[in-house]
Amino acid sequence: MRFQRIHLGIILALLVEISLGYYVANYTCRAKKGAWTYLSEDEITCIGISSTGRLIGIGGRNGTISLISRGSSTPKWVYHGGFRVTSIELSAEGDYLVSLDSNGTISLFPQVPLREGGRVCPRWAYHLQAGDLRGIFSSGGIPPLVYVLASREGTIYLLSTEGERLWEYKTGADEVVTTISVDGLWVAVGDSLGNIRLFTVSSGSPIWSFSAGSRIVSIAISFDGNYVAAGGMTRVKEGRIYLLSLKDGELLYERRVDRPIRSVHISYNGEWLVADEEDGTGVIIHYRGGSVHERSLHVVEGIRSIDLSPFGSYMVLSNTEGVIYLYYLPRPAPLWKFSTQEGTPLLAITQRGDFIFVSTSHRLYLLSNTHLAEMAPGSRTGWGLVFFLGLGIVSFLLFVHMGIHPTRVRDSDFLSASIGLGLGTLIGLLMTKNVGRAFLLSGVGSLVGCLICWRSRSFLSFLSGCYIGCFASGVGGFLLGLLTWFGGDERNIVQLTISGVVDGLRMGIVFGILGAVVGALFMKLIIKKVLGEERL
After folding, report:
1. What is the pTM of this model?
2. Which of 23, 75, 339, 447 has the fewest CB atoms nearer than 10 Å to its CB?
3. Is position 439 within any domain?
4. Looking at residues 23-37, what average pLDDT do you find?
5. CB contact at 8 A, 230 and 244
């Protein structure tokens, strides 16, 4: 009966461990730390990034435009304009930057800008009063091919490399939204009359038109060039989400929501649609081959802005309190959160979702999201509970085993363990100046080596103390790596544990031998002469 209760307890503990691990992996998030911070002298009003996040453009309240390399504290160049910068876009490779200021001037800058009298100046400037900057495409090469997309009221403008107007299209509506595809071939347009149109960059005539029946407020083209997504709002303030075929404008999917849509985003192949609504909630739609799965999106204090990484299926959003959340779309809960302490941060995420940029009034933060670093999603504290619960189960099993096969423990063993641990930790602390490393790498190895040699007189026990002491330091390094990650270190957990084990084994070579020598000396010189114990 006793064994049955023990077995039942072990099974229940394992079920709790598995359930806790599942919950932590799927429904908890961790606190994130910034990997790099850039301090701006001018107040930041807008940001734009290249596709990989290698280059960042920053616009300022006083008219400054800066181009920065990721990780650098000094801009590559700074342009001083006369008006507040309201929008910045970078081409995919970062070879061109285009900006819009509060005076309605669109300016194009190459990565290596023109200079007159030592001052940076744009390649060209185009005045578009009360207009909006909508996108940029650059094919690179020599000569470069650049398209700049802009709009004013109900009219679309496509500008060329030299700042010339390639074409314009008047929709007849009072407001318009538009975007250019990542390959620079297509321009999608939605207007306040409920029309969605598709253009090629070579012609100002639409190749198809779709009447949505609701005011279009957001539009996007999938990176594979097969889908157009749009968000709309009806006269009775209901929202609409549309998914169209880019080829012929056929309606593939329509979703009705109770509240107006603010923005809509689409993944690389149209598999994921994300929309946020005016009340601060959102909806995530998984669309595959006609099969649709939907779920609501809620965050504390409500959604303020959203950006999507098409290739990585990652979504970053901010709430009204300045807290940033990163989601992996198949996962119900966010992966992590980052607090800016300001209520209006700007967001940008790279195409693969490996870097996220967050700007406040004078700071730009880089948040890394490498796949290896995030391979254990969820709260670090939660994973600590999972790990130590598992460690407790293993310890309990060992305790049960010792209860069935009792092992004699002597008072002198505690003395030897204390001597080995204390001496190893003290010397390790002098060497490393780090309490964690001194205790887990030095002290543990010395403790085990000392304990083994204290119990036996044979030369084989001395070799065993050296070897097992080294191995014990490796185990201590494994624990140190985990504890470092649990403590919030942004490095990969596997990297931390492997480096901890290697470091432990390396230090264990010294401290395993140290413990074995100390154990052997104390056994011979002190136990026999002072305590007079007979060794068994």
Report:
1. 0.84
2. 339
3. yes
4. 91
5. yes
